[in-house]
From TrEMBL:
Predominant localisation class: membrane
Keywords, ordered alphabetically: Cell membrane, Membrane, Transmembrane, Transmembrane helix
Stated name of the protein: Branched-chain amino acid ABC transporter permease
Membrane topology: Multi-pass membrane protein
Source species of the chain: Kaistia terrae
Bilayer-spanning residue ranges: 33-52, 59-79, 85-107, 114-131, 161-181, 202-229, 249-273, 285-306
Pfam families in the cross-refs: BPD_transp_2
Protein location: Cell membrane
Alphabetical list of InterPro entries matching this protein: ABC_transp_permease (IPR001851), LivM-like (IPR043428)
Length: 321
């Protein structure tokens, strides 16, 4: 069993040692990649555990980014300007958006499979159009000069080392939180819903509320990533809430491994890094290469490239004698 844990532990150990190996610029870049890893595991949670293929994960990411920016810049009436309060609002905004989307889609007849994905595509497109035309939140240009998170000792998250360690800490917390939920009795029911929703309903579980909670938890983690994005990049724009980013997040999770949190996390880091490298070497053709790679992985590796490597042992309570 310990051997199954080693790859996951090794990843966190390597990430913790990166400040000893990289310069300030590379460290800041890796801090940004970790943010994408956080939003990737938020999708892997609902996709791998609940079978919910969301093409609108950027909705929750963008909601968190805008909540963080508006609060940190003091643009919300009656609420003091505070980056840390903004980060809390980012998590809350992502979770609330997730609950609202889930409530709208899962109650009543309840959308399943491809229909859920289609509606989330439409929602992402609508959200991007709304933010583009909403002047209060910056419109097409977005919001600039989002302040960093203040830290003890006169530091803030704009410092490469402090910012990296801060994001790494939040990434670890998000991973442990979703892992705990995944391996809890709630996670077991969620996997049952993914495998056979009607059977779970026949056992007395009210499936819609379980799905709504899952989407709210996923949205909260994505909102956290959005809040960190806003404070690390110091700006937010309609692009962070639209279909393009949602599709990227889907690719990250699928390439790494949609059913395993750590696989999706590493998938996001590797794919996003390769996107930057390819865009510098082959220009706009990087989109073509990424698309082809995604198709190949989905066809040849349904569990992703890293799913088997980072798959953790089954919880004790589910093991046979």
């Amino acid at each position: 069993m310990m051997a199954r844990l080693l790859p996951t532990l090794a990843v966190w150990a390597v990430l913790a040692m990166l400040p000893l190996l990289l310069g300030e610029w590379e460290l800041a870049m890796f801090g940004q990649l970790l943010i994408y890893g956080i939003v990737a595991i938020s999708l892997a949670f609902i996709w791998g555990q609940g079978g919910l293929v969301s093409f609108g994960q950027a909705l929750f990411f963008g909601a968190g980014a805008y909540a963080m920016s508006l609060t940190a810049k003091g643009m919300l009436p009656g609420i003091p300007a505070s980056p840390w309060l903004g980060l809390l609002f980012a998590i809350a905004a992502g979770a609330i958006f997730g609950a609202l989307v889930g409530g709208a889609l899962f109650f009543g007849k309840g959308l399943r499979t491809a229909y859920f994905g289609i509606i989330t595509i439409a929602a992402a497109v609508i959200a991007e159009r709304v933010t583009t035309n909403w002047r209060f939140i910056g419109g097409f240009n977005g919001l600039l000069d989002v302040p960093p998170l203040p830290l003890p000792g006169g530091l803030d998250s704009a410092d490469p080392l402090a910012g990296y360690l801060l994001v790494l800490g939040f990434a670890l917390l998000a991973f442990l939180f979703l892992l705990a939920v995944e391996r809890s009795p709630y996670g077991t029911v969620l996997r049952g819903i993914r495998c056979d929703e009607r059977r779970i309903m026949s056992l007395g579980f009210f499936v819609p509320i379980w799905k709504v909670v899952a989407l709210a938890l996923s949205g909260g983690v994505a909102g956290l990533a959005g809040g960190l994005f806003a404070t690390q990049f110091n700006f937010v724009s309609p692009a962070v809430i639209g279909l393009a980013l949602s599709t990227e997040i889907l690719i990250w999770a699928a390439v790494g491994g949609k059913g395993v949190l750590m696989a999706a996390f590493i998938g996001a880091i590797v794919v996003k890094y390769m996107e930057g490298y390819l865009s510098e070497t082959i220009g706009n053709y990087w989109l073509l290469v990424t698309g082809i790679a995604f198709i190949v992985v989905v066809v040849l590796f349904p569990q992703g490239l890293l799913g088997r490597l980072f798959k953790l042992p089954t919880p004790y309570r589910l093991r046979g004698d």
